[in-house]
Write a structure and sequence with these properties.
homodimer, alpha+beta, Butyryl-Coa Dehydrogenase, subunit A, domain 1, Butyryl-CoA Dehydrogenase, subunit A, domain 2, Butyryl-CoA Dehydrogenase, subunit A, domain 3, 3 domains, 7-stranded mixed β-sheet, 12% strand, globular
């Protein structure tokens, strides 16, 4: 099963759903030719190099032999091609060897990388996080020493956060960093679930490690961020001795077998402090937003991959009589129920893609907007959309991958077919980088009050503007899209108001509806993305520009989404505003424990 | 992770959701003491014998060595305990050594068997199918020779239907049966996906095989049902020579590794005709309803198992501050979002359990009702509910298993935890015994017209009666249950009317909404099941009978289901009545192919 990079769809979504043109001033090089060329190049890499390794990565996986982690077959060479092609440095600062392109374009590129081979994509994804953290919080020396080699991809990076007792609640970590008497630090402790924590595809690994310092206050304020390289680095950048850290084990996981998930043992490892003592968690959150958006993009990616495979299968497999044509042994595609499922899969993928790329454009504007007001508004938007991009898109990833298995029928359950791998791989994305439950709590507990409510208010206003534009354009091809979106938005507004009111005096009520609210708001924002695409498609068709069939599909997908997903939004509000009284009254024993 | 058989919940659902007391006349032995004793006994077997083998079954699986399939470790001994305990013969006719108990009680028992070890449960489940087919269509000689040994569990049975080109569309099978000149038949062909097609846990395997006969008409009318034993059986029942059939391979599957899924090669195998020449498919459908209900029960079962594991984990794992108590490092259970998720999981499980047990009670009444009118009405109910029981419950199975993984956080993705196995095992149930898409087509294409609409009309009437009863009882503890159920039922009625109207003149429109309709109707019927339970719980509480906390939870689950699932039903109607115009206008190329 080959992977076809959806370059045209991504470019369309970047432009029309995410508003990429607003970056023109800040990124003059990122014109549409460049965008297309970059996406085409990445698409070729993804399709030709990375996708063919995906099944072997699953079957063989990474292995730990004699204390050394070996990447899955072919991953090392592919990684070198990835780095040499400059794919690691797209959005990095030119001062550190980067190409200075927008992060939103990088997200478009990484969607294709993750779709082709999600286990592979995690390696550079973690490196990007380390680059982000060091660029913001590293000393001049650290930036000069580490960033060029991370940006080039010569070295890779990791995030060492989780410990056995400390997952969602990082305030409880116990890994200890003590001064080594030489101006540096010595780290001792165990970290788990460390993605690409050890491997043989690059010369060195820059571990960013959260640790507690002696005499530090308890809780999050006692946690600092440290850098501990796998191989010690001399002042001139050459590699020295091995550091006192190692992979103590590899997890046996449901999916992403090609990504080594390590137990990391720090046994008095030499380390440097990054940023301020006691600010470790805050510094780590710098990379967290970007990482969460990347994970949301993995949801889109795995859904796209699963969708393509299901579509291809539906065109090959013949079974039963078509209700349309009466043909016996018709293609699955020619059964209405199957075609509806495929189109719903694609509609949700395009909605999620729009959300992720919009979040990325907001991040670009937050750092590169022309005015402080622009940057500030964009930062609010990025902060608000990030939990939705992460959670809604990864839920889509699991659901679409499951539908992909289903369309294959019995063959979907057979591992050789490949559909099952997507179902397994997709399942991690709602979990890592903050579970989707944590995202929902973040949305309700923190993001609704951002800018004293300006963040959510601005979003609602922007969505109303699109409804006005739909009504003004008045293309009958929109169907009931405007009405469905408006009714859904009204429900979202009411649910939001309830949460804001309730949050102030009865947090359990608000939190009990957090997941339902994130789903509801994501459904609406996703519909907004498709609506913006529909407006653009309608205008292009009216102007006689572009591929009318492909543009018409954007309209059809928006209509189908409106009648299925958006039509169900008002009914979801009751679940948001249900409150926690029944929960509070329920004991484990009453639930069968 | 131990499994606790939910005996009390199953007994409650049998009685109050499924109306088990209506069987009192036909099954005088099945009094409540007997029901409880049977469920307790099966629960002990499931928890003590079958559940502990589940993980080994997954890890080691069944193996094919030198042409012989060996069951997973411990499965052979467990199977013998199962058979010796009489669990295979519960609902079989006493004439063949059965215990003559209701099938609905058997379904309650098998829910626990599948929950404990779904891969194991498939072996006796297929045997029950073979018993059903032979009891209905076998000759006196076949029944005398095979049934006692199948009922006792000494031998097991299989269904050989699928071929590589022929899955959902059995009219295209090519396996050939030719007269052997000796009064018997000789079968040649390849069958795939044959569950427990070969193994070493019993002395013989009775294969029921669909095959085409020479000169038979094309399509389904040319297909007949044959019996081909693994080991030939002498007239006195003793075993003779090996038959010319074998397992040619085992599938490498996503889950249920403990269940050998075989490619079966028939190489001139000696066989007997079962029933009428050319009626093979019709005869096979005799066992299909029962098998579909069993698979629906697997959905309930795997959801129950995943729920129990998630609940247990939520009580052990401590992470973050509780919004209720303010306690740091609170149990996951003490976070509102997690508790809501757990209660929604349980509410959907109880809804699905009610649907499956109601279908089973209808099946019992269809065969044992006092009058022909009773039997006929029950048969309609069984036929109507079967696709819902199969598809809705297995979709619940996948979703609840996925939520179970999610509640475990990172540990959910690690195979050692066991949550991931449920997610993998659950995925087959929406596929086999007719994909859930096929179930939806069956519901819309066939079941809505059953009894010229009487089947669906009676169901709607019964649901209205329950709404009336809720209103009459007027317990404030029902919350808005009556109103939510009524609004949902109105939406279901309208969607049903649209489908019946559209089916007559535009089948693609109707079929394009089939899956959405099955989901909608299942949501309503599930709510009805919980409402009946709520009525019973309310009455018991008012009478001061039973465990008030446990009964109160029945009410709480019904309320939560009403505000989350039922509240979303009206919004789903638009998806049912959307029509197929956009689908018909969409080509593969327009979707990216």
């Amino acid at each position: 099963m080959t992977f076809r990079a959806p370059v045209r769809d991504i470019a369309f979504s970047l432009r029309h759903a995410a508003g990429f043109e607003r970056l023109a001033g800040a990124f003059p090089d990122a014109d549409s030719d460049t965008v297309e060329a970059v996406l085409e190049g990445a698409g070729a890499l993804a399709g030709d190099i990375l996708a063919p390794l995906n099944r072997q990565g699953d079957l063989v996986g990474a292995t730990l032999e004699n204390g050394v982690v070996r990447a899955a077959p072919g991953f090392g060479q592919a990684y070198r091609q990835f780095a040499e092609g400059g794919w690691n440095s797209l959005a990095a600062d030119p001062d550190h060897g980067g190409q200075g392109l927008p992060k939103s374009l990088e997200i478009g590129v990484f969607e294709m990388v993750h779709a082709a081979n999600m286990a592979f994509g995690l390696c550079p994804m973690l490196t990007l996080g380390a680059i982000e953290a060091l660029a913001h919080h590293g000393s001049d020396h650290q930036r000069a020493l580490y960033l060029p080699r991370l940006v080039s991809g010569e070295w890779t990076g990791t995030m060492n956060l989780t410990e056995p007792q400390s997952g969602s609640d990082l305030g409880t970590i116990t890994t200890l960093a003590t001064p080594d008497g030489d101006g540096g630090w010595s780290i001792t402790g165990q970290k788990i679930y460390i993605t690409w924590g050890d491997h043989d595809v690059a010369d060195n690994i820059v571990h960013l490690v959260l640790a507690r310092t002696p005499d530090a206050p308890p809780g999050v304020k006692g946690i600092s961020l440290f850098l501990a390289p796998k191989v010690l680095v001399e002042a001139d950048g050459t590699l020295g001795a091995a550091n006192a850290l190692r992979a103590g084990g590899l997890e046996h996981k449901l999916g992403i077998h090609g990504s080594p998930t390590c137990v990391m043992l720090f046994e008095g490892a030499k380390a440097e402090l990054v940023g301020q003592l006691g600010s470790g968690l805050a510094h780590m959150f710098t990379m967290m937003n970007a990482a969460r958006l990347q994970v949301g993009t993995q949801g889109v990616a795995i859904a796209e991959r699963a969708y393509q495979q299901a579509l291809a299968f539906s065109l090959e497999r013949r079974q039963g009589r078509s209700a349309w044509t009466g043909e016996a042994s018709a293609r699955l595609f020619d059964h209405p129920d199957v075609r509806r499922t495929l189109m719903l899969m694609k509609a949700r993928i395009e909605a999620a893609r729009g959300i992720c790329l919009s979040t990325a454009v907001a991040a670009d504007l937050a750092s590169h907007g022309a005015t402080e007001a622009d940057r500030s508004a964009a930062r609010l938007r990025e902060e608000l959309l990030t939990p939705i991009a992460k959670a809604w898109s990864t839920d889509i990833g699991v659901e679409v991958a499951s539908q992909g298995v289903q369309i294959h029928g019995g063959m979907g359950f057979i591992e050789e077919t490949g559909a099952a791998q997507h179902y397994r791989d997709a399942r991690i994305a709602p979990i890592y980088e903050g579970t989707n439950g944590i995202q929902a709590i973040d949305l309700v507990g923190r993001k609704l009050s951002l800018g004293e409510g300006q963040a959510i208010g601005d979003l609602m206003d922007d969505m109303r503007d699109t409804i006005d534009a739909l009504n003004a354009a008045g293309d009958p091809a929109f169907g009931t899209l405007a009405r469905r979106l408006e009714t859904a938005l009204d429900a979202a507004s009411a649910a939001t108001a309830w949460l804001i009111e309730r949050r102030a005096r009865a947090m359990p009520d608000a939190l009990s509806g957090a997941t339902a609210y994130l789903k509801l708001l994501g459904d609406v924002v996703g519909g907004w993305m498709l609506a913006k695409g529909a407006l653009a498609a309608s205008a292009a068709i009216a102007a006689g520009e572009g591929d009318a069939g492909w543009l018409g599909t954007k309209l059809a997908l928006a209509r189908i989404y409106a009648e299925t997903v958006l039509a169900q939004v008002p009914g979801q509000a009751a679940g948001v505003t249900l409150g926690a009284a029944d929960l509070a009254a329920t004991t484990p024993e009453m639930l069968g424990a």
